[in-house]
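ping. complex inputs:
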Amino acid sequence: MIAELVIFIILGIVAVSSAFAVILSKNPVYAVLFLVINFFALAMLYLVLSAQFVAFIQILVYAGAIMVLFLFVVMLLNLTGAIESLQDKLPAQRWLAPALGMVLLVEIAVVFLSGFFAQVPEASELPEGFGTSAPVGMLLFSRYVLPFEVTSAVLLIAMVGSIVLAKRRP
Amino acid sequence: MPEIVIFLLIKLVMTIVIFALWMTMVPFMIWLERKVIADIQIRIGPNRVGPFGLLQPIADALKLIMKEDITPAKADKLIYPIAPALLMVPALLAIAVIPIGGMVTIGERSFTLQIMGEYRGPNGFFVPELDAGILLSLALSSLGVYGVVLAGWSSANKYSLLGGMRSSAQMLSYELPLGVALVGPLLLASSLRLNEVVNAQSNFGIWFIIPQFVGFIIFLMSGTAEVNRAPFDLPEAEQELIGGYHTEYSSFRFAMFFMAEYLNMVTISALAVTFFLGGYRLFTDIVWLQPIWFALKLMLFLYLFVWIRGTWPRVRYDQLMALGWKVSLPLALVNLAITAIVLAYVPKRAVLVLTITSIVLITIAYYGSSYNIRRSTDMTARSGYARRHLPESEETRI
Amino acid sequence: MLVQYLPFLILFIVAVAFSGGAILLSRLLGPKRPNPVKLAPYESGMVPIGGTRRPFHIRYYLVAMLFILFDIEIIFLYPWAVIYLTARAARLFLLLEMIVFLGVLMIGYIYIWRKGALDWE
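pong. complex structure:
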């Protein structure tokens, strides 16, 4: 288990330092790329947690799709020089962001202190094939069928929303 | 020696051998392409360097290495140099999940000829095949987009940028039908493991190209578009874009874009072989013949890619996008729905029924899509371009 | 079982070493004779016109957005495909689930088609 701990610490350092790099980079394209590195570190952390399917989905969806959109948008803004005007539009977020961050930190602390992690089994206690596609599918399409169906509605709303935003003439 | 060390040694040797095989496919493919296209166009093609011009690609590679590596003055100093590697590395990693042969047994140990494959050692040492095999391969192909976008952006050349945006939009669009087309075979195989897909085809006693013919056609088409090959080689539309996202690159970095393209083509072909042509299996289960069967089937697809390039004219960009979003994606979903319904109601005769429905569907799709694309691209031409650029009287005439 | 991923790590190292090594070799062997004209943006030998970084159409943003949404949809198909044949009793239920899921998304698909988001002028 010492190997897993070492891997966890290395990945943790990569994840945290890349997250800092995201907010400290002056060039928004670099920030996006650091965020991609961060997502890779997260995906590997999922692998350490025996959540293989989730790890690959993390790469496929976040690194492969969402960050490409971010990159497109950042390039779009960068090119038209709209990045400065964005900074002035939302002055409240400078104060709101740390406050919300603190709320998140408190939430994490509460989960830690509640003893939730004592119930999490060791990797060696997990059943064979844990975290692979078949057991994930079994749970997703039986116990979590309602969230699954709600996802389709969320995706539909996102589709309509993106069309409405894109078609709006300034 | 502990078992894990032996495991790693075997995997290291296997990785290097498969890597070397894949890398030799690149010059071979370049040679094949030039020879076959020359034949199609009634030319001779490369014939000076080595017998039948076989050493021509190596001469080209040596030439490119000796050339000056130019970094444009305004280019991004950090991203510009690494962009080709961002395309190349995912292309190389994609070989990890492809099985080129079945189970090999040496003494107490047995393993499949697949980098992320199954391994059994003595004393219950067991490493399973990667469960999410096809997901890894799709994830890697989606990461290739970064190389293209960033190469275009970091070059600080408007044609590079435009080429990069076009190619990335094309790659994104065709990833969807590619992903859906593979769900049909996966439904039949009930696994995301590529080795299981191969085994399922021998259990069913039929290659999935027969019951999943529609999926196969969509896969081939989307795969061609995904690797930016003719007739979908819009990124290299010289007439419009000078050269596309790699315009500013020179020397070996330039070569890397093309190596990545050829590697991706080999990988797409390997996936097509695995999913639709029974993988490494043919007639017998003699283990040492299996990589040879695999290679032969692979050659078939590589030849097909060259043949397509030599035969088809390049499509227009609006047609390309219409083909991806308005034809391939819905068709792949219809094919999936039919497959699922057939498997639910007549699982015993699924292969027969699916074969018949495939033929019907592909016939409808052929006539429907040619109508659909003509109509929708004509309509966009009329609605957008004509309205803005033609005088009023002209528009009414159109 | 992290041992499972070690072969991938090996391949990764080989791939990075190959790409890096090839570039390095090219740097060492190639000549270095830069001049201002050579380092200018290439526009078929013409003097570059206008800025090199220009805005591009919102349509690219739309394609990426729609890609994400459909990509998520497709990812749900994969675990579903894995359990579909093995779950004998629940197969019709699984079919129904997926028909509802895809049905809702098809409404969106028809909407974006009708709105012309799939058209390229």
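The longest helix of chain B spans residues 350-389.
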